[in-house]
Design brief:
- By secondary structure, the chain is an alpha/beta fold.
- The chain has a domain of about 160 residues: Nucleotidyltransferase, domain 5 (2-Layer Sandwich), CATH 3.30.420.
- It has 13 helices and 14 strands.
- About 50% of the residues are buried.
């Protein structure tokens, strides 16, 4: 493991996952994501921090840069309570200095987080977008960050090295289209469309938590199993047959009522519905900021595999310049293979995890730039 000079750990404390990045001198050494059902209690955050300490034994003594969205879970009385309690927990668990990303207000300590909570709360998207904007600005580019995660999608425009627009809260971004509350793992399928096509008929959808988008992308073979970290909707296994059964329930059927090929087609119908919704919101954001075919599109998140089809759904020309956050924006350390044991699968695997865990990488990179 490298010496600790100018090493930092970036953290993104979400409601369902914790993502973390080990960085030295602005270069990524390792990235990890752990499931963390925070709504069930802060003990789950404690367990993740313990696992992080096992992966990176010196990490607890390093400077830490933290962003969060976990304050939204119903464990907390309100979002301010969530920010305060998460900040306090991180500060008490980590021996090194802990700095919380407060967006336009800069950085703060745990004691200040309760006062600056509106800026600390759910600011992880801004860390990623600011990192991307600075990277693109150095190249004279403008465009949009498309971060498709397990639960949400962020569509953030940038120009001149800065994030465009004044939306900062989730509520403001829901209004502007910059936040689409859909992802490729945890989103209930009934949230994607009120009606869906199956075997030549258009059917009303059962508004029950029978299946999630993970079932769709397992059947299309696009979801990396390593990113599929939460239980299925019914707690059954995640292979093809149970995924088909969960999809069948969405229209009042069982998997045995149709051949596998029909369920594959059904999965593609759900995929198309999600692309139509996110694509429409992307068009809206691009139009609002006057971004056309000159726009760069930077993909991040575990759902970045949708980016080519999403650009098409948004009406962008086939030749639009697409970039990958993990491969193009992030700098990885020469010879880094993912921590002490290469568990991320070499440089390609490390960049892939940097894409998935973009906010943790971005917050570490921003802190490294602004603290040195």
């Amino acid at each position: 493991m490298p010496a600790p000079e100018r090493m930092r750990v970036g953290w993104d404390v979400g409601g369902a996952h914790v993502k973390a990045c080990l960085m030295q001198a602005g270069e990524v050494l390792d990235v990890a994501q752990w499931p963390c059902p925070l709504w069930l209690g802060l003990a789950h955050l404690d367990a993740v921090l313990e696992r992080a300490g096992q992966r990176w034994p010196m990490a607890t003594t390093l400077p830490n840069a933290v962003t969060m969205t976990g304050e939204m879970v119903d464990l907390f009385a309100h979002r301010q309570d969530g920010v305060q309690r998460i900040a306090a927990r991180m500060a008490s668990a980590l021996a090194g200095p802990v700095h919380f990303f407060a967006g336009d207000q800069g950085w703060c300590g745990a004691a200040e987080a309760g006062v600056l909570w509106p800026h600390v709360a759910s600011a992880n998207w801004l860390a990623t977008a600011r990192h991307v904007a600075r990277w693109a600005g150095a190249r004279g580019g403008c465009g949009v960050l498309v971060d498709i995660g397990s639960t949400t999608t962020d569509l953030i425009a940038f120009r001149g090295g800065a994030v465009l627009g004044t939306s900062r809260t989730d509520t403001q971004r829901l209004a502007s289209g910059e936040l689409v509350y859909q992802g490729v793992v945890r989103t209930p399928l009934c949230a994607l469309a009120p009606r869906i096509a199956f075997q030549g008929a258009v059917l009303n959808v059962m508004n029950e938590f029978f299946a999630t988008t993970a079932d769709v992308y397992r059947l299309t073979d696009e979801l990396d199993p390593a990113h599929d970290q939460h239980p299925s909707a019914d707690g059954a296994p995640k292979d093809a047959a149970p995924s088909r059964q969960r999809l069948a329930r969405m229209v009042g059927l069982d998997a045995r009522d149709a051949p596998a090929e029909d369920w594959q087609t059904f999965a593609l119908a759900w995929r198309a519905a999600q692309l139509a919704e996110i694509g429409g919101q992307l068009r809206r954001v691009l139009a609002h900021y006057g971004l056309g075919d000159e726009a760069l599109v930077v993909g991040a998140g575990c759902g970045a595999f949708l980016l080519p089809d999403l650009c098409a759904a948004a009406g962008l020309t086939p030749g639009v310049l697409r970039f990958d956050y993990g491969s193009d924006v992030v700098r990885t350390a020469a010879g880094a293979t993912g921590g002490v044991d290469g568990r991320n699968g070499g440089q390609a695997g490390l960049r892939a995890w940097a894409r998935v865990c973009a906010p943790s990488v971005a917050v570490a990179a921003l802190f490294d730039e602004e603290a040195t």
